[in-house]
Amino acid sequence: MAQLFIFNVTPQKQEVCYRMDFSKDGLRDMADAMRSFRKLIVESGRQAPIPGDLHPAQAQSIMDQLAPVGGVGTEELNRLPRVRIAYIMSLGRPVTRREVEKVQQHNTGVLTTEGQEIRKRAAIASNDMVAKAVAANQEENARLTGFEMSVEEGPAEPGMEPAIPHKPVAEGYRIGDPAEAPSPPRPAVRGRRG
């Protein structure tokens, strides 16, 4: 018997909903599904234990229920999936600060990658719109072969400053006709000297 701690890594207060599918003896108990439904409110950046001591089968069942919505156990922190993590779960001991920092760095990396991908897709969509406009007026735009798009983050409006300091976004994309792209240079072929 042990306690299961749940740490909320998200910036919002969370209602963690779960079922107790097993009895205190570790036996499957699905007689009344609504009776076994429970919820635990966990504030942002805080952890809370599931009330009472849990049988290992109960704890594992709750961890399995929270996995699809971003829950990971502390033993899984060395092999995190490339998705945002919402909850860190620890059986028998509270979640440590080091574990929280590791997941926060992971989430920052995932969000940064998602942002770059969104901006890249926006540049490609803009390119498609320009390509259609060029095709519609082909005679006037005969020399246009591509364009550049840049994204730059301006200063925050008063009262809208980010909670976490970050490096401002400033990146650009060059999109052109793939048929006109220069081919990569060929590697030098070494021959025998004779």
Describe this structure in words.
There is one protein chain. The chain has 194 residues and is of the alpha+beta class. The protein has two helices and eight strands, in the order ββββαββαββ. The termini are far apart. 14% of the residues are buried.
Short description:
The chain has 194 residues and is α+β, with helices and mostly antiparallel strands. The protein is built from 2 helices and 8 strands; from the N terminus they run E-E-E-E-H-E-E-H-E-E.
The ordered string of helix (H) and strand (E) elements is EEEEHEEHEE
Task: Label the structural class.
Answer: alpha+beta
Mean pLDDT over the residues: 80
Q: How much strand content do the residues show?
A: 15-25%
What Rg, in angstroms, do the CA atoms define?
26 Å
Q: In terms of per-residue confidence, which ranges show pLDDT below 50 for 5 or more consecutive residues?
A: none
Strand order of the largest sheet: 4-1-6-5
**What separation lies between the terminal Cα atoms?**
80 Å
Number of strands: 8
* Main pleated-sheet profile: 4 strands, mixed
Task: State the helical fraction.
Answer: 25-40%
Given the C-alpha coordinates, what overall shape results?
Answer: elongated
Tally of helical runs: 2
